[in-house]
Records
---
Amino acid sequence: MTTSTKKKGNVRVLTRISSIALFFILFAFIFAKFVSPYDPTELAVAPPFSSPSWAHFFGTDELGRDSFSRSLYGGRITVLISILAATVALFLGTIWGFAAGIFKGWLDEVLMRTADAMMAIPALLFALVCISGLGASFVSLTLVAGILLSPSTARMARSALLVEISTDYFTAGIASGLSRWKLIWNEVMPNVASQLLVQFSINAASAVMLEAALSFIGLGVQPPSASLGTLILQGYAKIYNSYWYVLFPSLLVVLIILLFNAIAENMRISMESDKSSS
Amino acid sequence: MSAQTAIQTTDLTKTYSGARGEVIALNKASFTVEQGKTLALVGESGSGKTTVARLVLGLVPPTDGEVSILGQEISKLKEREMRSLRRDIQVVQQNPYSQLNRRHTVKRIVETPLKAFKEGKPAERNDRIVEMLEAVGLDAAYLRRRPHELSGGQCQRVAIARALVLNPKILILDEAVSALDVSVRAQVLNLLKSLQRERNLTYLFITHDLGVARYIADDIAVMFRGKIVEKGSREEVFEIPKHHYTKNLISSVPLAEPQEKSTKPKTIANLPNPNPSDACAYRSRCERGQVETECVSKVLVPNSNKSHQWLCHFPLNERI
Amino acid sequence: MNTGLQVRNLSVSVPTTSGQRLAVDNISFDLPKGKSIALVGESGSGKSLTAYALMRLLRAPVQIEGGEVVLNGELISNLTPQEFRKIRGGKIGMVYQDPMSALNPLMKIGKQIVESILAHSDIEKNAAKKRAIQLLQEVGIPAAEDSFNAYPFEFSGGMLQRVVIAMALSGNPEILIADEATTALDVTTQSRVLNLISQLAYDRGLSVLLITHDLGVAAQFADELVVMYAGKIVEYGEIRGIFSKPLHPYTQALLESRCDYTIDFTKPINTILGQPPKPENRTSGCAFAPRCKFKEDICESNDPRLESVLHRSVACLRVNEINALSGRE
């Protein structure tokens, strides 16, 4: 096998491993009820601040609750928010970018300069202001994160669209009698779908980061629900007593972000190699 | 204008405003193509021939002038009205691979126009598609293949099949054989000629290749910097070219007949840029134009000799 | 000693769906000093790969599988990459098809030529600048002193190609490789650029390797012709001889299928069907056999070798019968 087919093989293996790992983690989160050994709200299942053991993988928190179970439930919230936010960004961003690319002219200018302006504002600041105004909740977090992530999606969607519109086969389609809309739906969308998927994965990773950051400063989901960010916040105060309280949720956050990014990067690489081989 | 006219343009003009000011891509081009005939538009880069294709297909509106397809003036039509005309005028482009959607099968590619105009039921469509593929020399086994599995020549045949599946009257061929190997080019040219005979098609053949133009066309229009500088039957243009550019084009083509390697000096200097203020855009490159002041100032009007037309104050008068 | 370039048994492999396969298969030819050879073939013939192999510009997974290249009696195919860098752009210069991609769009062309000069000679910057301006004049760029400070986007295609030629000459080459150097140019510009290359070759005693698919270009500008098909040489010899009496069926077919303004437009063009085989599909026997009208059983079982016929080399098992030769020519 030559070096590049080896590389491609490596890429595919990596994507597969990353996807399977992420899938397991997500599975654990979604089915937290069945996977978690303890009820996360049950108090005093063990002495508070017990260190990690076989009974309690991540130890216990200040109220004696099992940290592993809390992490599972917390992870569920974090991941749900990030995937939903990425979905919001996908829809909003695609419509935004496509509208700019299809209608061109002044609409294009307005839409794209708005996107530029939004991207120039520091994300956390923007989110802070919005959440403070809207109040912190699952829904507001998802929407704000989604809106924050749409301008970059819009930029990507617009340029992907413009590339496809200038191709010979698009011209051939118009000459065949198809309307522009039908062409965009039938021929352009499938060709840009993989790029949009990559963007989705990247956005999900960014959303995890954003949610964790917001929860860390207290603007995330409110008790009794706790996301990974909230756990980090709570554990941070106790870092000298029981480092494991803050360590494990943080590691989980890092892991999830890395996995989302790995999937995105590997999808991108396999897309590129497909293009060059054909 | 008789009912026999497939395409007619009158003073067709297209201007683009770019970063460096206005560019006149096409300047008062007028020509007629009779049904069942072929007109070749020959020109180099910047001649405006590609612009003609886009205007005739209704992809962009002209800045001035008119285009009529089968008797109907199209420059003021709305997209919806234009779409119904598209049944009768189709295109085959230069790049065999990029004019086909890389994700679609051959069957889906050829079926697209049928679907667009809602023609026939799926079973009838399938028969029609197979019939079309056979007409271009591909058998039914190609239905499931995708463009990247085919050679350049095969892709071009698929593009031709797609263009003809609606039984159009006119085919615009925009450098349709330029990207093909020599032997494949010959195959496709033979195919195009026989298809034209069988189906009484009208061809507007755009090319930079004089040999191809002469082989396939009944009439030839030579373009330079947006203007048609000479127009006539293929015999007239090749045997008695009137415009200096036409003669230069013909003599620039290297023929596959090796000659004595002479040591006499050949022209190596770069071609001078045309001067926009000259009345004749070709003046700065023309031996005659460089010595005649009329070529700088006197406005050009087409001269003609029945079917042969040229845009030159001092046309050539020799048989070559 | 300047004996030109000799290529012996050069092979290049490419990755395919069934593993690494030869796209250039054991080819050999000579490029004598002051002569020009045209390497002619259709897509997949391996002609461009040959040029890139000579310049060692191939990148894995495409790689040279074997062969020797001798320049002026010295073996250059076994030089280390550092040593070869003196040859590439120095003794051997190359002009590519697309001038836009051969030049850095963000750097003035004068600076790029000076860079190239300094890489291959020990003169100091001012002298290099003078030489660059001289080169620009030599290739016919008007107002060379002003053009020195211009950027690539200010030039037309033909002018840019002249700049690229100037760069190729900056290392004082003995060999010039022109890889489809005029394919992207207008025909009127093409004839001038080719004339320029001829003139420069004559003035400087260069050998030129002209890679092209255009038989007309080969006929007008080359002394000898190498016809390639599916990675192999099928006919090789003095060009006028080949054009007046082509011996290999592929060469004959190539000449018959051309479409220039001298052919008879009332008849279909006499061409061959099908297309050349891809590297992964090449089998034993003659690669051209499936498309050859003279094919017999022997053509599919035996590999043809280059043999000397009529003062040239032809790789065809039936060459004598097809051309009604007695076999003693």
---
Amino acid sequence: MSPEIAWLIARATGQTLHMVAIAALIGSALGIPLGVFLATSGKGELFAAPLANRLLGAVVNATRSTPFIILVVAIIPFTRLVAGTSIGTNAAIVPLTIATIPFVARLVEAAIREVDPGLIETARAMGATPLQIVWKVLLAEARPGITLALTLTVVSLIGYSAMVGAVGGGGLGDLGIRYGYQRFMPDVMLAVVVVLIVLVQAVQSAGDRLARRFDKRIRPR
Amino acid sequence: MLRTTLPNFLQPALATDVVPVGLYDPDNDAEGQAALPAIATTGDLVHIEGVSKVFPAGRNSAAVAALDGIDLSAPRGSVTAIIGRSGAGKSTLIRLVNGLEKPSSGRVLVDGVDVAQLPEAGLRGIRRSIGMIFQHFNLLSSRTVFDNVALPLEIAGLQGRDIAARVTPLLDLVGLADKRDRYPAELSGGQKQRVGIARALATEPKLLLSDEATSALDPETTQSVLELLKRINRDLGLTILLITHEMEVVKRIADHVAVIDAGRIVERGSTFDIFSAPRHETTKALLSGVPGMQLPDYVTARLSQERTSGSETVLRIVFTGPHATDPVLSRLSGELGLDLNILGGAVDEIAGRPFGTLVVSFPADDERLAQVRGFLAERGLSTEVLGHVA
């Protein structure tokens, strides 16, 4: 493999990590609160707001059901507004983030719904405010589940990031398509796939380990 | 032994003339500006008056009246039990006391404050003066024993050192000082409930609510948890209101008992009176599981309410108080020349008093029966004719 190709792969890896990291950070920062709200705003729940719950739920579903590549092109005006351009790595972060928010929200919602409702009642009986219940009970008890949810999010983001080559986003997927496929360079394709596999493996096992450490429900051997 | 390990902040509760700290004070409630003025305080810490609770009709269900005209009170410093079958409404009833449920009508006074009228913010204040323990313990799996007990203190806004100063003596009190850094998954059921009890005591409550606290425990562990509760009641003067479906629990620790059935209180009184002279069918049914209360199957199978020729009358004799240990039976057969057949019986202790039941049968006509019952009544023993066996 020539040094030029190696440099291309290194640069593409950097772009992928850059896009994934920022989209995961912003997506989680917005997705986790949204997930908490979805999990606690149903009828008779902590922050009961059934109408807002249904509305946000519908928006989340709509975003989730739009194929990512369509989302990328559909929100180009918005991307331009936010990033100042609709082309390039920074522009690609916008649709990645938009897709991440509802993804994280639904996974976090599921993790929080796993928390025993008896614990919410217990905290209420102690005189906890709804916010205290969220912080001290729901998020604390759902931490292993949320960790796994975020792990899954990052892994999915690595996959999604391959599609943003369509708007000049760069990254490993883009490199694989342009060099590996269109220029018939199987060694580049192979290298791209290997790097992706290593990335996903690393993220997944780090996430698993973290989740296990947070999970105190299992009796230690 | 207990005194020495007692947390300092609980000590004032031992002296009757000292107002315990941490009591809910509606005039000084940071959160509940809307708290209502206190209503005259009586000798009862909890006073429930004419309370009904209707759960509105759902999509697939009709409206359910869970509670119907409940009057109940829990005197200060007492252990009051509410017993009933599952679905009788006791869970709803106990949740009215700390406002987890709102009554459809009626008043729920806790230390003179009508909990039913308090808004959520005001409730938070009063809830900090009411501890609660649960059937399934409801410990946070992500927190150590220490941190679980610390939770209500964190919620009340206490800081690190103040929290430790309260949690440590409580862990001593419940005998779990050596488990402070363990997680709930590493504890047995009995230990988990002890953590639950320590947690419920953390905010120095004046009232402890117990929601089937021993129902998930084996009999031996149940005993030790009940002993702990009794000790807390006795030594700290803490008022306990508990719900259970087990007469055994009532017998061990309750001073007063109310029997609830289909949302109504069907019988109430001192534990001893209810056990020695149950009147309502539900009470009798609940008592049938207690040793000495149930007849052997071969007797019940033959029992009839009609007297036939050659049949024997089945009589339950209840021994209470000082006569519980008298040789009444031998006198009965000796002085009245009676051929007694013993069908069942048990001697036990209820609310700390000796108590025995004996089921006997003997051939008797009305006159003879009256003679026997008179003989026993003279000696302070109550009797109940259960029927006749051929």
